[in-house]
Amino acid sequence: MPYTLIYCYDPMCSWCWGFKPTWNQLKQQLAPRIEQGELILEYRAGGLAPDSDQPMPIEMQTKLQSVWRNIQQQLGTEFNFDFWQQCQPRRSTYPACRACLVARQFDLEAAMISQIQQAYYLNASNPSDLDTLIQCAARIGIDSRVFSEQMEKVQQQQLLEQEVNQARQLGLNSYPSLALIHDQRMLHLDINYQDADALAGQIRLAMKALASHQS
User: Tell me: the pLDDT tens digits for 14-72?
Assistant: First the structure.
């Protein structure tokens, strides 16, 4: 029975953006285990902020800009602060999460996450807006009409809400979060934002712990 590594994220979570380089390094280290069928990697959209058409309050805008600066100082992550002048921010990440669920249907979830992050944090575009998400989808090869239709279906069927509830039931309440599951047992992993080797070591130890419990 393979192990399952769950990565719970929100594409508009700034800490997930800060974690991206280490996450990519970790995936490279885990690639042999994944190719051998020993490990399955699953993404789970966390749904940081529900749908809203209301402009983001100035206090929240100021708070998030402070978070960006903190991540920039701690991790060296690049942010384009023009977003706060050029866009009309809304506290709404559900559309971006739904876009990732649509991309999952085409095995392009990771690519969609990356496109949304680049649009938001580097290109000062607003992923709360459908037009931005359509552009992100087009860049990874998803037809705009098909994407828009699937976005409506995901919303109508409340697929994101179901996924968010599943994440909560697993105790994945912050973003990014990692958990390893095997034989109906789960271990949460501590996020190390700058050391993929340490994370890989955690996963090896967790695999051993779960295997020993099974035996």
Answer: 999 999 999 999 999 999 999 999 999 999 999 999 999 999 999 999 999 999 999 99
Q: How far apart are CA 68 and CA 180, in angstroms?
A: 29
pLDDT at site 180: 98
Cα 59 to Cα 63: distance, rounded to the nearest angstrom: 6
Is 115 in contact with 83 (CB distance < 8 Å)?
A: no
Domain boundaries, the chain: 3-214
Provide the pLDDT confidence category of residue 215 given band limits of 50, 70 and 90.
low
What span, in angstroms and rounded, lies between the C-alpha atoms of 173 and 46? 8
At residue 64, what is the residue type? L
d(CA 109, CA 43) in angstroms, rounded, equals 8
Whole-model pTM: value is 0.96
Residue 24 burial (CB count, 10 A): 12
Helix (H) / strand (E) containing 3: strand 3-9
102: closest CA among 154, 55, 56? Answer: 154
CA neighbor of 5 nearest in space, from 175, 208, 177: 177
- On the CB side of 44, CA atoms within 13 Å amount to 27
Does domain 3-214 fall into CATH 3.40.30.10?
Answer: yes
